[in-house]
Amino acid sequence: MPTLRQLQYLVAIEDTEHFGRAADSVNVTQPTLSQQLKELELRLGTKLVERGRPVRLTPIGREISSRARKVMRDMEEIRAIADRGQNGMAGTIRLGVSPTIGPYLMPHVVVRLHKDFPDLKLYIREGIPADQFAELRNGRLDMMLAPLPVLGSELHSEPLFREPLQLVGAPDHPLVSKPALTMEDFAGQPVLSLDRRHPSHQQAERICEEMGAELLRDYEGTSLDSLRQMAGSGLGLAILPELYLRSETGGEDMVRRFEIKGWSQQRSIAAIWREGAAFADSYAAIAEVVAAEAREILA
């Protein structure tokens, strides 16, 4: 029978499509991974991997990999159950957080969670939501905080709060002092955004279409801080979340909000975990704390 480690190597090949990167992702040498995959193929009596560039799984390999992912998730949950014992709000929960949320909300959440559940530990990883959805499905994360929408019937999403988005620019931008601004006033204005892997990039595209503004493709930011700094320098306008603007690390020291008639742009933030997760009640309790802290800040 295949070993759990061999199944893990097969999943890594499907995820990375490269022997070297797959080996790195599971912390083994490439020869070890290659040899174990060959042994897996011998044990099962069928070819699982098409060795080319990129490396692909055969149809049977893909089917086995899909089932292996479920086995790996189940094993992770078995370990988690054993670690946490009888108290569901104890042990370590692996929480993925979007970098457009985590730094400006999680400090408040961590303080409250530690006060309410002192035996609970959070392993917090920031990352691109699309990448972290894959980690959540694969069992490498227990839950996530990310903007909606969430795609995939195998994931449960719990809407937490709606966060206003604000259009900002340099303090000396000509439109800052103009009264009674409308969306039409921003036609042709350059707007900065994070790179296209972020949900905020797609939302910025839609807002720019509504305003007739120009989304700058050559100056994509790597963080909300970089957007604020570029906007403050006059390179373009930026669409920033309210929590960021109210945070100690964000703020409005180098940018100004535009007061626009009819402006009501916002984003919805959700907690996400796998459907049927063994500790769904614990994840829901964490989600309630996140929502309460966000509402308090935004009130």
TrEMBL record:
InterPro entries: LysR_HTH_N, LysR_subst-bd, WH-like_DNA-bd_sf, WH_DNA-bd_sf
Family: Belongs to the LysR transcriptional regulatory family.
Keywords, alphabetical: Activator, DNA-binding, Transcription, Transcription regulation
Origin superkingdom: Bacteria
PROSITE patterns: HTH_LYSR (PS50931)
One annotated Gene Ontology cellular component of this protein: protein-DNA complex
Gene3D superfamilies, sorted: Periplasmic binding protein-like II, Winged helix-like DNA-binding domain superfamily/Winged helix DNA-binding domain
Residue stretches making up the HTH lysR-type domain: 2-58
Regions annotated as coiled coil: none
GO MF term set: DNA binding; DNA-binding transcription factor activity
The protein's name in its UniProt record: LysR family transcriptional regulator
